[in-house]
Amino acid sequence: MAYAKPNQRFRDKQRHVVDLIMRIWVKSSGVGIIAGLMLICFYLLAVIAPIFTSVTVDPLSQYSVSYPYTTLAIGSDEQGKMAYRIDDTGQVQFIDLVSKKVVSKKQIIENPTAFTSTIESQDWFAFGDSQGRVQFAQIGFQTNYSKGERQLIPLVEDFPPFPSIQVDENKQLLTQLALSLTATEGVILATTQDDRLLGVELDSVVNQMTGESVWKAIPIEFEQSGLDKIDALLSMVITPNNDFLYLLYQHELQVWKLKDHKAHLRESIVLKESAQKLTLLSGANSVLVQFDNGSLSQWFDTINNEKRTLTQVRTFNFDAPIVQLSPEVYRKGVSVIDEKGNLSLIHTTTEKKLYSQQLFTDNVLAVTQPPNAEKLIVLTKQGWECFQVTNPHPEVSVQSVFGKIWYEGYPEPAYIWQSTAANDDFESKFSLMPLAFGTLKAAFYALIFAGPIAIGSAIYTAYFMSSNVRRYVKPTIEIMEALPTVIIGLLAGIWLAPIVENNLVAVFSLFVLFPLSMMIIAFVGHILPAHIMRRLPRGQHAILLIPALLGIGYLTFNYGYLIESWLFNGDLRHYLGDNGVGYDQRNALVVGIAMGAAIIPTIYTIAEDAIFSVPKHLSEGSLALGATQWQTLTNVVLLTASPGIFSAVMMGLGRAVGETMIVLMATGNTPIMDGNILEGMRTLAANIAIEMPESEMGSTHFRMLFLAAFLLFVFTFFVNSLAEWIRQGLREKYRSL
Question: By CB neighbour count within 10 A (0-12 exposed, 13-18 middle, 19+ buried), where does 144 fall?
């Protein structure tokens, strides 16, 4: 038995301690990395989860009171703390729902015969009387802050230019009204007791001398062919831009176009079911039609064959006929109460019924939602009932994120990402499919460009190139990976994109001429006498390609116009446009070249190491058995190195998918689903970089960007897992070599 000296035993103990420390450090580092990734994943899920949570409606307060007169309408302030009620005597009452007291009352008109209101964002009301007159009133609240406390002051104001207006010169009793009124124009529709439809257009003209607005009331001239059954008219509404009038009959919906104080019937639609009432949806681009059977349909204009037509887009069915309906002020949600007392919250665009529950046993007289949509205020025969509504993200569903949605103004369902716009009528569109498609499109074209070049270079460098040349080539290509992608993106967007646009034929020609010229040069080298080829050291024959390729590129760019004149009548862009192929200056071709150049070092480095690491005895044994170098390469070397080559391609794909700056600067950033290489795109990573700074913390937009980040995370994990699984399979398959 060997004897260990004291200093040797000390070194053994020291080595054991160091090994133990390093083992613990390596294990803890690995566990820490896994824990960090899991924490990132959990954080993303925590931010995303609220957009898919269910809607809740909780009782908040009750105020028992009975009213002797019929309720015409109710409304509330922004936060739902104070409400108003208009009755059929023409009186408006303001009720504090917190203290449960009547704050004030005001008589607007005595015993109106007709009543209507604009959409809630305008807050105007109109009352008709028995003498053919219409009186306006704006009902709302003024917010005042006194001693740090928020105070609501009820307001009832008339319309100064026309406190009242004589709509019917015959002074007949008015039976129905419709109103649209803004700061510069308005339209009034009225039906009379003797079944006539009248209209008045209100226009303001600025006096150039005084700067004051002068209002004029001009009667509307109706096309008589569409007014043969006004006695059966059930409901009518006016769009806020005063361009269209909608008239509803039991089995007919009419669309009238208003222009130059004249109204003509644009179209008449036959309804299969018996209709009840019309209501404008938020934004007033859609009209809702209630039916006797308890269904509710949404209609809006679509353009087909260059013709605008009103189209029924979707229908919602309820258990009983609808008695009350209240659209949200700024979103496409609708609160519906049916005869059985069921409350349903729906979102029209996503076609999703968010909530449905029986909450009422008494007859519901009216319902309203505050502009912030966080409460629901209902008036029944027993009094006021307030509910807390938790519904922060109704516009998001699995269908709206990953499926086609039919948005207002579009001819058909589509995948659309459009998160912001200039006005409150805009509806956010959160389909991630165009962004995912753009991500895959950019990665695909980048791999198409980079894959053959990188793998071909790796094969030549590792198998054919002499060691002296390889010593300089490999580090040079690898160091290219350190080039900042923002520089590549800047060059691609400012320098490369105009060159491609002005030399489109030459660029496409090079994709054919370069491979073809290399094959021709290789064939020429093959048939040349051996003593000529021996003058160039073995492994350095590729040097001959450099001047040849530079010359071909020079000739192609300088004389590409000849090809363009021969094949495309001198203008490829015009030729493509005539054949329905669009062109953007910053497109997928530019991205493919730029991002392909960025991922070439990644693919090349890993693939070259894999090929170079193939044991020499395998290739030498193959050559000794009579195989050519090409046969040895394809049947032995590449098969053995295939796991590493596949990993290289997957690593390049992963980098291309996650690339931000190049696609941000070298594409048009248009979120469209078009496989055309000459069109732009927007990727998930670029979209996050563009829109995250402008998104509001906790908003739907903010959480959707985190969902996009999570999709990137999942996609990268899936690609890496698939790559590892395939790599292990290839390794097992060719291990016997």
Answer: exposed
pLDDT over threshold 80, residue 531: no
- Whole-model pTM: value is 0.87
Instruction: Give the angle 161-162-168 at the CA atoms, nearest 5°.
Output: 150
Q: Which two tokens stand for residue 523?
A: 């064939």
Q: In DSSP terms, which residues pair with 140 in a beta bridge?
A: 155
d(CA 82, CA 99) in angstroms, rounded, equals: 9
Residues 313, 311: Cα–Cα separation, whole Å: 6
d(CA 511, CA 521): 16
Q: Which residue has the tokens 């009820």?
A: 154
DSSP string, 400-431: HHHS-B--TT-SS-B--EE---SSTT---EE-
What is the average per-residue pLDDT within 152-165?
88
Dist. CA 20–CA 23, nearest whole Å:
5
Q: Write the DSSP assignment of 11-72 as a string of letters.
A: HHHHHHHHHHHHHHHHHHHHHHHHHHHHHHHHHHHHHHGGGGSPPEEEEEEEEE---SS-EE
Confidence band of 9 (pLDDT split at 50, 70, 90): low
Q: What confidence tens digit (pLDDT) does each residue in 332-387 have? A: 999 999 999 999 999 999 988 999 999 998 889 999 999 888 999 999 999 999 99
Query: Strand 342-347 vs strand 352-358: parallel, antiparallel, or unpaired?
Result: antiparallel
Q: What is the mean pLDDT of residues 531-542?
A: 65
Residue 596 to residue 450: CA distance in whole angstroms: 5
CA–CA distance, 63 with 99 (Å, rounded to integer): 9
| Model pLDDT for residues 374-428, shown as the tens digit of each residue | 999 999 999 999 999 999 999 898 999 999 999 988 889 999 998 876 565 678 8
Q: Which of 529, 521, 481 is nearest to 659 (CA)?
A: 481
Under the banding of pLDDT at 50, 70 and 90, the label for residue 313 is very high
Distance CA 484, CA 365 (A): 66
